[in-house]
Design brief:
Elements lengths: L4 E5 L6 H9 L4 E5 L13 E4 L25 E4 L1 H9 L3 E16 L12 E14 L5 E7 L7 E8 L4 E4 L11 H12 L8 H16 L12 H14 L3 H21 L5 H6 L2
Parallel strand pairs: 1-2, 1-3, 3-4, 4-9
Antiparallel strand pairs: 5-6, 5-7, 7-8, 8-9
Helix pairs in contact: 4-5, 5-6
């Protein structure tokens, strides 16, 4: 079955994988993409979320990415750094200043699908050094934040263009400190992007096992696993695809573990590679 999917572009922030996890919990498939991935890699997605980053948008850092994503006819939502990049790309301004860190109150300025089902004031989590100070002609300010009693309003904390289907949050909806951030993400993924919640981890495993069987057919596969999580998951999927009982998969796992241990023992020896090819 073909599932609707969202791409999460990882700019090196802390929460890219958390964003993807929150999307998957909605029953929608999500994949991590790299900023420099070719534009063709994004053609099958129903929407894109741009993650935060330690880079400073105001200083032009991390600018070598595939900006052709902005030409795609799909919704895009940016968090923190992604928010700033969207604002800047469409004619807004970003400065290095007006830093915030901690809980803030988001004041929502009007009805909008991104904030459907939420109160006019929502607790959000701020963590940034750069700030959006103006937006382009097709954008509007959807909300501002106030961090602490008596603080000045932080303008353009949420921005959007329904015409372009481009949106940005200065705050982090993916963390639990943003109390209803999950609802904001769901509003984007399910309502604005129109994704169908048909994906589950159980179905994903079954689909990947079937894909392996179809791709390999009657051929043989030799897998050397490094011991990391990705390799162990791959080994498990191959086991599900071919092993007829748990004992045969256990034998394969033990053999790989012994080979890894043996190779580590050989590393200090200059004749290690000779021994390896003389097996």
């Amino acid at each position: 079955m073909q599932h609707d999917a969202i791409a999460v572009i990882d700019f090196g922030g802390q929460y890219a994988h958390l964003i993807a996890t929150k999307i998957r919990r909605l029953g929608v498939h999500s994949e991590i993409r790299q900023p420099e991935d070719p534009i063709e890699a994004f053609s099958a997605y129903k929407g894109i979320i741009i993650s935060g980053s330690p880079a400073l948008s105001s200083h032009g850092e991390d600018q070598d990415y595939t900006k052709e994503i902005y030409d795609l006819d799909i919704p895009i939502l940016g968090f923190c750094f992604g928010h700033q990049e969207i604002a800047k790309h469409y004619g807004g301004s970003v400065i290095n200043g007006k830093q915030e860190w901690g809980h803030a109150d988001l004041h929502i300025l009007g009805d909008h699908p991104l904030f459907a089902g939420l109160d006019r004031v929502e607790q959000v989590w701020m963590s940034h050094f750069d700030s959006v100070t103006a937006v382009g002609p097709d954008f509007e300010e959807l909300g501002y934040t106030i961090l602490g009693e008596g603080a000045e309003p932080h303008r353009f904390a949420a921005i959007g263009s329904d015409k372009l289907r481009r949106y940005g949050f200065q705050f982090h909806p993916e963390v639990d400190d943003t109390l209803h951030g999950d609802r904001m993400i769901a509003n984007f993924v399910l309502n604005i992007c129109g994704c169908r919640p048909t994906w589950t981890m159980d179905s994903y495993v079954a689909e990947q096992v079937a894909r392996i069987r179809t791709q390999v057919g009657d051929n043989s596969v030799f897998l050397l696993a490094s011991g990391g999580v990705d390799w162990n998951v791959a080994a498990r999927l191959f086991g599900e695809a071919w092993c007829t009982d748990s004992r045969s998969f256990a034998e394969v796992t033990i053999a790989v573990a012994r080979l890894q241990s043996w190779l580590r023992d050989l590393e200090p020896r200059p004749d290690a590679m000779t021994d390896l090819f003389c097996l």
